[in-house]
């Protein structure tokens, strides 16, 4: 549906009044009505890097989910205030690893005698607490666009990696990109005693994968890939690495949201694509390339939007911007000093990856 013209005008007016005081960042999974007002759009890596690009901006309005706003707060100066237009915009994957569970896991690894040899690598999609844990234990953050480099770095620091919280990104990177075998990976289940693993299993494993997943990408299946190949002969299947291993293994191309956009920009006219990632992005790309004779379809019509990404809508954005105009900062995301210190260590290790 087209956006309410009144709200569009209000967002425009508020942004204009704020001028350089506000910097609006938008993740690729955001609604069109929100993306329209973003000064910068990007994947998680680009947005983490760009958050600090405008140190003069007093306010950073982050159109994305909670962990992204936290990361922006960690990576920007104290004078900059980060706003998340709807505090309910969380991420179910990030919620799958709590600080207590991860501390317990580290104890299990310590008791099995493997903690000293283990380097934590945490996906950006995690809370600031998990990032701080990672920094404290000599590890790094990664995103879907640098997971391989992060793992290569980690294996220079130790013999094993504890990969949090997305088991699929961890497994896909290890197996598809780095040639490890599925047997090198074990899954730590935080809901089972000792993660459901014996000390022997922990000692034998190279990749210890946290049992977390994305509820959106987890719904694409091998059937989704097989069905689309049957329906559209010659189709290129391009999926996000948060998809299950069997989906990634059956796909033609795999990459982050930024990678997906670049791949479609470079695709020749007449080519056909089935995309396995969030629906807002796929729809936007299908519309954008429709007149260039690139057929772009959603990999599986039964999969839905990311409901938390979608919580940021035009009314919430207008509310956030107009509050700032009135001198009131709503929904500020502020990470405490100690957490910030260690989380920043881990984030900076990622930003320094070759
Ligand atoms: P990227 O934009 O880094 O590919 O991340 C996808 C995602 O799920 C963010 O929540
Ligand atoms: Fe989290 Fe998945 Fe939504 Fe990304 S798409 S914010 S990983 S639930």
Tally of helical segments = 15
| Helix-residue proportion | 40-55%
Specify the structural class: alpha/beta
- The CATH architecture term of the largest domain is 3-Layer(aba) Sandwich
**Bound small molecules, deduplicated:** 1,3-dihydroxyacetonephosphate, iron/sulfur cluster
Q: DSSP strand (E) fraction?
A: 15-25%
Structural Rg: 21 Å
CATH superfamily of the largest domain: NadA-like
- Which fold does the CATH topology of the largest domain refer to? Rossmann fold
Count of folded domains:
3
Largest sheet: 5 strands, mixed
Low-confidence stretches: none
Average pLDDT over all residues:
97
DSSP E strands, number: 14
Give the C-level CATH assignment of the largest domain.
Answer: Alpha Beta
What order do the helices and strands follow?
A: HEHEHEHEHEHEHEHEHEHEHEHEHEHEH
Question: How far apart lie the N and C ends?
Answer: 43 Å
Describe it.
With 354 residues, the chain is of the alpha/beta class. The chain has three domains: 5-91 and 309-336, Rossmann fold (3-Layer(aba) Sandwich), CATH 3.40.50.10800; 94-213, NadA-like (Rossmann fold, 3-Layer(aba) Sandwich); 217-298, 3-Layer(aba) Sandwich (Rossmann fold), CATH 3.40.50.10800. It contains 15 helices and 14 strands. The protein has a five-stranded mixed beta sheet with strand order 2-1-3-4-14, sandwiched between helices. Strands 6-5-7-9-8 form a five-stranded parallel beta sheet, sandwiched between helices. It has a four-stranded parallel beta sheet with strand order 11-10-12-13, with helices on both faces. Helix 6 (128-136) crosses helix 15. The longest helix has 15 residues, at 337-351. It starts with a helix and ends with a helix. The structure holds 1,3-dihydroxyacetonephosphate and iron/sulfur cluster. 1,3-dihydroxyacetonephosphate binds at residues 28, 43-45, 91, 125, 143-145, 214, 240, 242, 256-257. Pfam families: NadA (PF02445). Its cofactor is [4Fe-4S] cluster.
């Amino acid at each position: 549906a087209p956006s309410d013209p009144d709200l569009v005008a209000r967002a425009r007016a508020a942004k204009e009044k704020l001028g350089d005081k506000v910097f609006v960042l938008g993740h690729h999974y955001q609604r069109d009505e929100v993306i329209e007002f973003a000064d910068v759009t990007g994947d998680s890596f680009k947005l983490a890097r760009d958050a600090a690009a405008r140190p003069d901006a007093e306010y950073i309005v982050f159109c994305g989910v909670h962990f992204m706003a936290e990361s922006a707060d960690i990576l920007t100066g104290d004078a900059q205030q980060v706003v998340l237009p709807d505090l309910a915009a969380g991420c179910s994957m990030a919620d799958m690893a709590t600080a207590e569970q991860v501390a317990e896991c580290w104890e299990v690894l310590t008791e099995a005698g493997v903690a000293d040899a283990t380097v934590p690598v945490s996906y950006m999609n995690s809370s600031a607490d998990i990032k701080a844990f990672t920094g404290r234990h000599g590890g790094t953050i990664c995103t879907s666009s640098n997971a391989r480099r992060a793992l290569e770095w980690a294996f220079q620091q130790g013999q094993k990696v504890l990969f949090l919280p997305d088991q699929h990104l961890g497994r896909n990177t290890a197996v598809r990109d780095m040639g490890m075998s599925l047997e090198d990976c074990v899954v730590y289940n935080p809901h089972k005693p000792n993660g459901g693993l014996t000390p022997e299993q922990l000692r034998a494993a190279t990749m210890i994968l946290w049992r977390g997943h994305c509820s959106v990408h987890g719904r694409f299946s091998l059937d989704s890939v097989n069905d689309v190949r049957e329906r559209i002969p010659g189709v290129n299947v391009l999926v996000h690495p948060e998809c299950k291993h069997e989906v990634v293994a059956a796909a033609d191309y795999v990459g982050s949201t930024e990678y997906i956009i670049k791949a479609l920009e470079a695709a020749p006219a007449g080519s056909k694509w089935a995309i396995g990632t969030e629906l807002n992005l796929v729809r936007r790309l299908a519309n954008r390339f429709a007149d260039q004779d690139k057929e772009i379809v959603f990999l599986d019509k039964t999969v839905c939007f990311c409901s938390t990404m979608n919580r940021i809508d035009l009314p919430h954005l207008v509310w956030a911007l107009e509050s700032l105009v009135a001198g009131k900062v709503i929904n500020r995301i502020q990470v405490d000093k100690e957490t910030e210190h260690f989380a920043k260590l881990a984030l900076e290790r990622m930003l320094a990856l070759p």
